[in-house]
Write a structure and sequence with these properties.
- Helix 1 (about 5-15) packs across helix 2 (about 60-70).
- The chain folds into 2 domains: about 5-85, no CATH class; about 95-215, Alpha-Beta Plaits (2-Layer Sandwich), CATH 3.30.70.
- The radius of gyration is 20 Å and the shape is elongated.
- The chain has helices at about 5-15, 60-70, 90-95, 110-125, 175-185, 215, and strands spanning about 35, 45, 50, 95-105, 130, 140-145, 150-155, 160-165, 190-205, 210.
- A hairpin with a 5-residue loop joins strand 9 and strand 10.
- The strands form 3 sheets. Strands 2, 4, 7, 8, 9 and 10 form a 6-stranded mixed β-sheet that branches.
- With about 220 residues, the chain is of the alpha+beta class.
Length: about 220
Amino acid sequence: MSHLDLMHTWERVIRRSHLPLAFSQGFNPHPKINFASALALGTTSDGEYMDMELTEELPLEQVRQALDMAMPPAFEVTAMKVVTGKVPSLMSIIERGQYQLWLDFVDEVTQQQLDQAVEQFWQQDEVVVYRYKKNSKEKKAMNIRPGVYQIKLTADGKRGLLEILVQSGNEGNIRPEEVAYGLMSAGMPPVQQVVRIHRQGLYLLNQAGALVTPLDVV
């Protein structure tokens, strides 16, 4: 589903839950709900983050039960935390996104071919892909190489699994399919289609440089 539909779904869930959701002030009030990072249309996920502001303090278990009763199938709250005081927005702290991509190759591939493509990718200073400019048919070149941090690529016949850790957040986003295009430019056998993209999680770096979730720091 689209990010806009996801936002509307959560608004309906909270309305049905009868939780005291806070709204912005002004002529056109908006519910105080914020997401860490918009999920691309067609991408599945089991690691999304959202914050919401209530007008009164309630026990976490009461909030969770109210949401569980109002949620449609396939939606599940897996963890919750109370945040007090001034904290940065979720969107502003996210730095990394972890993805899985299932690929269909045109022909059968070997693990050696894939390993060579990954090695060639790492050896390049620039891996250029092209994006359409916003509200334009004009394309712009973008070097994705600095924003790719981990690659694992395996195959079984014509089917491949690409697992990546890439830049995400306010400093810039690397789209997962762009890494597949970059690997093809580095010698990976041609892909017939990207069957599925799944976001495993969103992270930021702690002071030691380790990956942590937003729930670990807020």
